[in-house]
């Protein structure tokens, strides 16, 4: 507790009514806390396997399985072929005499 008393003790004859004394005490207290604080690490923390690598690998595996499933489902060999509609065979016929004139009359009316 000796260090804490040194930080909070006032100089003889100093009063707390002056702003300089108050700010000086705050600065001493801050310096005391910083000196006792834990030092930052110099070595990086090793990555946690369960928090970084395994979830990434699991998502990658799920996406790979999904991609393979889509490729298999979309492969053209698996789809059934739609039969083409058969057009009627052309038959040669004989038109009656004057059919063109009748058609023209109906077209103009």
Order of helices and strands: HHHH
The level of helicity is: 40-55%
SS element count, helices? 4
Largest sheet: none
Tally the beta strands: 0
- By secondary-structure content and strand pairing, the structural class works out as mainly alpha
DSSP strand content: under 5%
User: What average pLDDT do the residues reach?
Assistant: 78
First CA to last CA: what distance?
119 Å
Q: Uncertain runs with pLDDT below 50, 5 residues or more?
A: none
Spatial shape? elongated
Short description:
This protein is mainly alpha-helical and 109 residues long. It is 52% helix and 0% strand.
Question: Top keywords for this entry?
Answer:
4 helices, mainly alpha, elongated, 0% strand, 109 residues, 52% helix
Question: Can you describe what's shown?
Answer:
This protein is elongated. Helix 1 packs antiparallel against helix 2 (19-36). The protein has helices spanning 2-8, 19-36, 53-74, 99-108. It has 4 helices and no strands. It starts with a helix and ends with a helix. The longest helix has 22 residues, at 53-74. The chain is mostly helical and 109 residues long.
């Amino acid at each position: 507790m000796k260090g804490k008393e040194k930080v909070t003790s006032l100089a003889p004859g100093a009063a707390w009514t002056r702003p300089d004394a108050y700010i000086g005490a705050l600065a001493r207290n801050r310096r005391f806390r910083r000196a006792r604080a834990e030092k930052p690490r110099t070595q990086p923390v090793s990555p946690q396997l369960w928090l970084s690598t395994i979830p990434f690998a699991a998502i990658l595996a799920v996406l790979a399985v999904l991609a393979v499933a889509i490729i298999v489902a979309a492969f053209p060999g698996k789809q059934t072929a739609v039969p083409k509609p058969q057009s009627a065979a052309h038959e040669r016929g004989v038109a009656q005499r004057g059919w063109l004139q009748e058609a023209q009359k109906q077209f103009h009316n």
